[in-house]
Amino acid sequence: MQISEQKVVTMNYEVVDSQGQLIDRSEEGGPLAYIHGTGQLIPGLETALEGRGKGDKVAVDVAPEQGYGKRDEEGVQTVTRNQFDDSVEIKVDMQFEAQDDDEGHQIVTVVAVDGENITLDTNHPLAGKALHFEVEILEVRDASAEELSHGHVHGPGGHDH
Ligand code: ZN
pTM higher than 0.85 for the full model? Predict the structure, then answer.
């Protein structure tokens, strides 16, 4: 069975940046499962997996435009400390999820702390980065009607309910 829309794909993956620095790999959390064609993966990776099958090993270079997007310098903003809960100690490189107007949540990174002023970067941490993926496809199957209606995979690598 080949990967196409509405197939559930289970895979191991490893992703490094252009310097070969490891960013993420699936092994710790077990294989990743997703429904193909639903935008759960970044576009460059999803496109590269189209038509592949079980047992295939795929190496993919993904440019920022096909990955997490380019960096937007307007996404760097300075706010004052009183916008944060007093109990939270704000440090450089801290990351947290903030509510976003359209997409639900986004990762925000603290890039500078200067007295009462805190500089935040709302760009995705991987924005502007060229990524290299090594993927091993473990399984390809049809998504169930229930999975399609929920928009996510059930069972190993997916939701357990
Ligand atoms: Zn579900």
Answer: no
Distance of CA 156 from the midpoint of ligand 1 (Å): 12
- What pLDDT sits at residue 104? 64
Pick from 128, 137, 134: nearest CA to 15: 134
Q: How far is the CA of 130 from the centre of ligand 1 (A)?
A: 32
Between CA 36 and CA 29 the distance in angstroms is 20
Residue 13's closest CA among 140, 111, 135, 120?
135
Ligand 1 center to residue 151 CA distance, Å? 7
Å from CA of 148 to ligand 1 middle? 9
Q: What is the CATH number of the domain that holds 117?
A: 2.40.10.330
**What is the 154 CA–ligand 1 centroid distance (Å)?**
6
Q: What is the mean pLDDT of each run of 10 residues along the chain (161 residues)?
A: 97 96 88 95 97 98 95 94 87 85 77 94 92 98 96 90 84
Q: Which domain holds residue 55?
A: 7-68+127-150
Domain membership of residue 161 (yes or no) is no
